[in-house]
Amino acid sequence: MNLEDIKANKIFVIITALIVLGFSYMSFAGIGYWQSANVTHNAGYHGPIPHSGYGVRFYHK
Amino acid sequence: MAATVNLAAFPFSADVNCAHCYKPFTVYDPEGSEYYVCPHCNYYLHKSTRGNIYTLEKVPAPANDPLIPIGATGTINNIPYRMIAYMEKEEVGQSFAWREYMLYNYTKGYAFLAEYDGHWSLIAGVAYYPELANVEDSGTTAVSDGVEYLLFNKYTPKITGMSGEYDWDAHEERITASELINPPYILVKEQNNRNRSIVDYYLGYYIEPAEIATAFKLELSKFPPKIGHGANEPSRWRQRWPKVLTLSGGFAILVILIQIALIFMKPETELMKSHFDMEPQLAYKPDSVAKARAISMVKATDSMTKKRQFDSAYKATIDSLTNSSLASNQNGNFEMKPIRTKSFEISNGPVPLEFEIISPVDNNWFEANLELVNEKDNQTWDVGKEIDYYHGYEDGESWTDGSVNESVLLSGIPEGRYHLNIYGYGRSKFGNTLDVTVSENITLWRNVLVTLLVLSLYPLFCWFMMRRFEVNRWMNSDYTPYAKSTSEGDDE
Asked: Do B423 and A54 touch (CB under 8 A)?
């Protein structure tokens, strides 16, 4: 493998390098290709922190 | 490989007269050639040692005009050639037919351009390749100059049309030919049928029609189209495969090194670990109800008696009310009191976050709905997990099903202060406990695996195409190393 081989396969090299870059970005950003199933993300709202929604306060151990 | 042909390399062409039709024709190697085919009457002529020309017999004319005209000159690989003879051949007992163009170089002698189904090979003998003097031949394989060749085809050729000049009696020659390949090379073994001890080897390599067209200044469009795969046609997938494999392997190692570096740079850290006794949720407050009932049951007027009557009535109702206040749905399952964990800090986000939850259920289940709450902006991440663990003994064998622990993975959680709200749900009213551990910077091995899988896709594709090419190539051979039952389609 030498520079000529890399030049001859430059499209493959570029795509592969992008894949590795993507992997690096995701790893450093703590992003998984997937997380546990059925996770619901609520983007949040401003105001007081809600209680449980069950009509009771949270019990803090 | 186009180059200007030095005509001084062919200094001795001469005209001779046919011994049959007496018409003149040009001989390009008058000193070396001993047999001619008259281009006018197609009689096969022999030149004696004294220089006299005799008629031997009429030979079949080629069915087609040679693509490279007799007398044409061209240079391939810096070797100047003149085309001096053309033969059309077929395999005895078979319908396979091919064409051979005999090229002459003044210093090196003959070389051949062989064409079959549009695939061309430039083949030459020991004068061009001295290593052919030391071929190790075992029949189905042969080794020349350290290169191993595999037997691809074995046949007896027959001339069906010929023209030009020869330095041997080509028309009467009877040989058995074996072709052994190591693409793009082909090793041709010719064994004389009249004297089996005479064996000659020739080495050829696959040559593109464009190179021949350029060398002999021909129109490429007149060349026959390629059909299927040539015996020694190089597979571009085979050429690509080792480079792609090396490149992908290098990138795969890089991915693993990045992951190892990440493990050191952002180590896995435990943010919170807590144990919770999960208590059942109450549908109403038994204390208030018991008090109300006790008050209604008090009849006395003096305070001491009222107090006694109240305490007695309260004690009589509180236990039954407490039991009946435990909430259960119609399936008999119990909802637990929600729990809010202590807060924890993610200081270097975003990070992958893992919750490990353990509930020591025994032939039972417990479900926990976890809600991660960002205490600054109220972003939440909700996920439910059921822990179930069953075991038993049946038909002489122990069995288990499920596990007492589960884990939840969240990715890309930004930095901030968080807590967990836990909503439990269980089959048992009492005795449910939950251990929760929250860790950040979990190693995302799935990221590594997915990336390695993606990196392997193209090498795998190359390998598949390479193998498909080889299978198709060897379908034309009786000596295929691949199973004959394999029937894969043509790929290119």
From this structure: yes
Q: What is the pLDDT of residues B335-381, one digit of tens each?
A: 888 889 999 999 887 888 999 999 999 999 999 999 899 888 888 88
By C-alpha distance, the chain A residue nearest B341 is A60
Closest CA to A9 of B234, B246, B211: B246
**Cβ pair B244:A34 closer than 8 A:** no
- Mean pLDDT throughout B221-236? 93
ipTM of the complex: 0.70
Segment B195-211 mean pLDDT: 93
What residues of A are in contact with residue B455 (Cβ under 8 Å)?
A: 16, 19-20
What's the confidence (pLDDT) of residue A30? 83
- Cα dihedral B301, B307, B308, B314 sign: positive
Q: Are B391 and B400 in contact (CB under 8 A)?
A: yes
Give domain limits for chain B.
Answer: 14-234, 269-281+333-442, 286-324
Whether A32 sits inside 8 A of B446 (CB atoms) is yes
What's the CA gap between A22 and B258, in Å, rounded?
12
Q: Which residue of B has its CA nearest to A22?
A: B451
pLDDT in tens, B251-265: 999 999 999 999 999
The strand ranges marked E within B285-396 are 334-335, 339-340, 344-346, 351-358, 364-374, 380-394
Chain B window 412-471: which residues touch A at a Cβ cutoff of 8 Å?
412-413, 421, 423, 441, 444, 446-448, 450-451, 454-455, 458
Q: What is the pLDDT of residue B473?
A: 92
Distance, in Å, from the CA atom of B322 to the CA atom of B338, rounded to the nearest integer, reads: 18
Please count the residue pairs, one from chain A and one from chain B, whose beta carbons lie less than 8 angstroms apart. Answer: 148
**Contact call for residues B181 and B100 (beta carbons, < 8 A):** no
pLDDT reading at A50 higher than 70: no
Give yes or no for B236 touching A (CB within 8 A): no
pTM of whole model > 0.80?
A: no
Distance between CA atoms of B302 and B66, rounded to whole angstroms? 135
Mean pLDDT of B389-397: 91
Task: Say which CATH architecture domain B269-281+333-442 belongs to.
Answer: Sandwich (2.60)
Yes or no, beta carbons of A58 and B281 under 8 Å apart: no
Kindly determine whether residue A20 and residue B451, on different chains, have CB atoms separated by under 8 Å: yes
